[in-house]
Amino acid sequence: MPIEHRGDAHVIEHALAQHTLTRIRDVHTEQVGFRKGLVKLGRICGYEIIDGVMGTEPVEIETPLTTMTGTRVTGMDDVVIINVLRAATPFVEGLLKAFPRAKQGVISAGRNEDHRLEDGSFEITIDYVKLPEIRAKDTVIVADPMLATGSTMCAVLERILAAGETPKDLFVLSAVSAPPGLQRVKAEFPDATLLTVAIDDHLDDDGFIVPGLGDAGDRAFRTV
Predict the structure, then answer these.
(1) Cis (ω within 30 of 0) for the bond into 86?
(2) Which residues of 89-107 are buried (b: 16+ CB within 10 A; e: fewer)?
(3) Could you tell me the pLDDT band of residue 114, with boundaries at 50, 70 and 90?
(4) What predicted TM-score, i.e. pTM, was given to this entire model?
(5) Mind giving me the DSSP string for 81-146?
(6) What is residue 116's predicted lDDT score, i.e. its pLDDT?
(7) What CATH number does the domain located at 3-56+72-221 have?
(8) Partners of 105 in beta bridges
(9) In 3-state terms, the chain is what percent helix, strand and coil (to 5)?
(10) Do 45 and 12 touch, CB atoms closer than 8 A?
């Protein structure tokens, strides 16, 4: 199955997605390769969402030779993609290749690395929010390459759901996730569908995913 249900999440098992994730995990993959890998991964994930989740309908068309009944994906004009800045930017670039007519929103959110709370989560600072109208018929995809403790994603989802109507489908999409983050997001937002390319082993003492892929923002934008 291209998308396999595992506990709190659904894992995108597409062979090319797994191949691409392996490449960007590699410490020897430099900035350009890392960014291109995130773009490719976003595109593959977008196609898997279309194939595994979205509906289709018959449509009558005329070819150069005759008329026929073809197939059209429904809901492609009702997609909203939320970019969790900054690491998700290349990831979203790939998603837009699958959903070229999607409305886009951005939320700049980051955790305070120096202030971890007793429950293992972090204080989150949200600096900027710009969202399109979200309607009940929309499919909303919130993209962030890393889902670690879930602190950032929960803060982002709170903002999104407070800004408009509850969408028909709400997807949280990540490249790699850790079990504590998946459990927290699912507990606080049970109607969200959690999609990831990999569920990693654990979080280290600093709240980073292991084996992970490092800091996706730093690797993509060469700020290390």
Answers:
(1) yes
(2) bbbbbbbbebbeebbbbbb
(3) low
(4) 0.93
(5) EEEEETTTHHHHHHHHHH-TT-EEEEEEEEEEEEEE-TTS-EEEEEEEEE-----TT-EEEEE-SE
(6) 63
(7) 3.40.50.2020
(8) 82
(9) 30, 35, 35
(10) yes
Structure tokens at 191: 């109607």
pLDDT band (50, 70, 90) for residue 71: very high
Q: To 5 degrees, how large is the angle CA 129–CA 132–CA 137?
A: 130
Query: How far is 31 from 6, CA to CA, in rounded Å?
Result: 31
Domain boundaries, the chain: 3-56+72-221
Dist CA 134 CA 114 (whole Å): 34
Residue 2 has pLDDT above 90, yes or no: no
Across 156-167, average pLDDT: 93
Place of tokens 């593959």: 44
pLDDT of residue 224: 72
Q: Closest by alpha carbon to 192, among 47, 66, 82?
A: 82
Return d(Cα 69, Cα 71) in angstroms, integer.
7
Following CA atoms 53, 17, 5, 57 in sequence, which dihedral angle do they give, to the nearest 10 degrees?
10
**What is the rounded average pLDDT for all residues in the chain?**
93
Above 70 in pLDDT, residue 120?
no
Q: What percent of the chain has pLDDT over 90?
A: 83
**Residue 150, both tokens:** 């879930």
